[in-house]
Amino acid sequence: MAKYFDQNNETFLSVAESGPIFTHGSQLKFDVPCQKNSTKVPGIEYNTPLNHDLYSPSPIMALSVKANPKWSPFQRYLELLHILVERNLKGRYRGSFLGVYWSLLNPLIMTGLYAAIFGAAFATYYDNSILKYVLAAFTGLIVINFFSVSTSQALASVVGNGALLNKIRLPISIFPVSMIVANIFQFVMGPLPLLAIVTLINSKNPLNVVALIFPLIALSLVCAGVGFLVSALYVFFRDLPYFYELVCFVLWISSPVFYPAEIVPEKIKVFLQVNPLIPIIESIRQISLSSDLPDSILIAHSFLNGIIILILGWICFRAWQKQFMDLL
Fold this sequence. Notes:
33% of the residues are buried. The protein folds into 2 domains: 2-70, no CATH class; 99-327, no CATH class. α6 (174-189) runs antiparallel to α9 (213-236) and α9 (213-236) runs antiparallel to α12. β1 and β2 form a beta hairpin. Helix content is 61%, strand content 9%. It is α+β, with helices and mostly antiparallel strands. Mean pLDDT is 81; it is low at 1-63.
């Protein structure tokens, strides 16, 4: 194992000797194997074509990371996170006309469908206003969409970067984190501005617009915790994506997204309390669709769920992390 030391004699990266490190200016470069028919991604410099013979001598793929000798470990982590998030977003929307705005168009289309099918039936629960039903459905959809997309991408992040991890010593946790952060950026650029405008029009209070950040932070904590858990489990159980699709569907159907919570029987409501997305959805709706001040109890409930899930997910991830490399 070859190691690179910065000027403070601190190890930046450790690389297998078959992939030597070399420096160029202020950048650190290291070689990693490239799989047959791999997809070229931003942030990667390719020294050989990607359509090589699988059984030919191992091709080289050089990945550049800026190496400032004055960086702390946290700064290095953030720099690598920035590179992975940028690569993820560029790779996801390369050639796309709308780009990140698909994250806004999708819930808008689904909201229109729900309004056309259920609007008249459920409007009585929203002061006989189909518009209020539309806004309620939209707020529920952006939450459930963010959760399902970000955690599903985090699920495959560790296994999907197994070849890189076998060659280079990197913090494994950065891969699920990068998926969550990429989706946060996508949410900020897409649904959040529209949600802020709706909140300001309905509440007529800028404080409510600012308060939106609290349930959204709680949502990010929930997604990060679940992302750590499922990305670790996927290393051991490769059938997990199929089961997780069912989990996401259960969370969606058990959340009051397109139906009012009042129609759920009391006996069933007890079981729905384990759904961590419900207090987040209810908090966002209370902030954005009413003229009242933000409900601190709903916000606290959302944060409590988020912190508990994040801690549990992180504990499981760290406990199983030592076994990852034998299975990747």
